[in-house]
Amino acid sequence: MRKYKLIYVIAFMTFLGLSACEDKLELDPYQSIDAELTNTSEKVMLTANSVYERMQNADLFGANMNYFSELIGRSSDVSWVGTFNTKREMGRKLLLINNADVRDVWIEAYYTINICNIVLSKLDIIDDADDRNRVEAEMLATRGWIYFELARLWGKQYESAGSNSQLAVPILLDPVEGESDVTYPGRSSVGDVYSRVLSDLTGAETLFTTYHTATGDSRMTYLNANVVKAVLARVYLQMGDYANATIKANDVIQSGSYGLVDAPLKAFNNSSYTPEDIFALQQTALSNAGESNAGLTTHYASLAGNGRGDMEMTSDFLDLFEVGDLRGGLTTDLAGSALITDVSTMYYIGVGQSSNNGGINTAKYGDGKKNTPLIRFAEMYLIRAEGNFEEGTSLGDTPLNDINRVRARSNASAYTTVDQNSIRQERYFELCWEGFRLHDLRRWKVNVYNPDDDTESIAYDADRLVLPVPERELEVNDNLVQNSGY
Question: Residue ranges of the RagB/SusD domain (predicted)?
Fold first, then answer.
């Protein structure tokens, strides 16, 4: 089914890398792929498989989608102390329309969406029926997930009781295989983008369920039905649809396919999947997202040969954890030669060679060659707990029991009761620095800390918390309009 020669994979990845640069210049804002690369069954499936490589890119899930949320949503718990102005703008919530990181995420997202669109237009070329179902599901899931992230970053918060006519991003569903296919659509509304997200993800869920039932293949290293359900749980949570978020999270929990590892730190920096990984980016020789100034290790870590220590946490943040909670532990005496394998606590004083060493850094990202978890099983307990609490239900279990499961793994004391604040705080403690902060604050309608003036908070729906449409996109597409405030 996936019997591709390595040399062919490498050649195709090289083509994608080159065309991703060249076509961006020629076909702004959307890129093309030569039709000859998708004219046989094997080539269509190879093209489909390439989306996993694209997802690992630092301009998608490999780094920047994490940084955008954590930096724009940051409080006094973390500081950006690095020299990259693009990320300093995010930390200050004062983005410029020519921010290169913002530009590159837009480009990479639409390049990957176009791969999905091309493959979806060529499903009839695939010989095997099971392969067709699987590939269609993978492309829908990838496209839906990326549109969800784009809507959260370029559009204002989805309002469960609103019209959601606020602008998000363009929706492209037709393949671009040459210059004659390029179109210049305007931005669709938040409501329309979320409708597309739900359509793609629920369609993928149905196809995956059919495929796995027919083949008995759980395909842990690829997108599958449980991954899609977990993403849907996130989507419904962001929409304020707590009932459906709870159902999807409960489905994943009840699948019996996952479990919490026995210590929080063991969920990170692994070479292979752990029981806690619902979906992780598997770093390989072909995906060096963490080995240059691009991946999460680059800015979160400060170790020998790994990281710059640009994302520094504060002692006030660590003081929020109760004594004994493994998620707040700090190592202060690492040797200058220390690697992530020498770190036994969730935080450590950085020892890297960068000028930013000596600060407090998280151990969640300590080796760019190790896997990056994108969806962890612990998150499903937190979603189910929050959803059940907000709905006044106990599907699967009570919010108290779910929160205490996560706390017990961290050696934190058990709660006797939980309320909205404790559930939200637990989510922050468990998922901090994993790309959730801005999105959580906005859906909770909680104001965001202003790092330039600690007497001011920024409204959750403020213009400055939404990314600008990149300047270069506005220059080539007259149908695009800029977000307010830029």
Answer: 354-486
